[in-house]
Design a protein that fits this description.
mainly alpha
């Protein structure tokens, strides 16, 4: 799969990221870092442990990664979860569907990144 096809598959904005990073090789370099980043793992671990402050930080990191690399769908779902976690001190069931949306977007994104030639 090409970098452009990857962006199409994950609901990203290829033209936007290309305007900043200028080459597919450079974009791919940063996309591969997303696949190796531990922020999603930290989000899962901290939500499970009901550590809201650290879950917020992990979600905020995913939001930033999505924004910086124009991974629009991941950015949007992570942004919604981040705002729900902002200032939250206790876990609540309303976080579950928000987390599930981030999880689906993250897994789709990482699978597509790993399929890039």
């Amino acid at each position: 799969m090409t970098v452009k096809e990857c962006y199409e598959k994950v609901g990203g904005d290829y033209d936007d990221v290309m305007s900043r990073l200028r080459t597919d090789e450079r974009i791919k370099k940063f996309l591969l870092k997303v696949a190796d980043d531990k922020s999603f793992e930290a989000l899962c671990t901290n939500l499970e442990a009901h550590n809201m402050e650290e879950a917020f930080r992990a979600s905020h990191t995913l939001k930033g990664v999505g924004l910086n690399l124009s991974l629009t769908k991941l950015h949007k779902s992570a942004n919604i979860l981040t705002e729900a976690l902002r200032g939250k001190t206790e876990y609540s069931a309303d976080l579950v569907p928000l987390f599930e949306a981030v999880k689906a977007d993250y897994e789709l994104t990482v699978a597509a990144i790993r399929a890039v030639d």
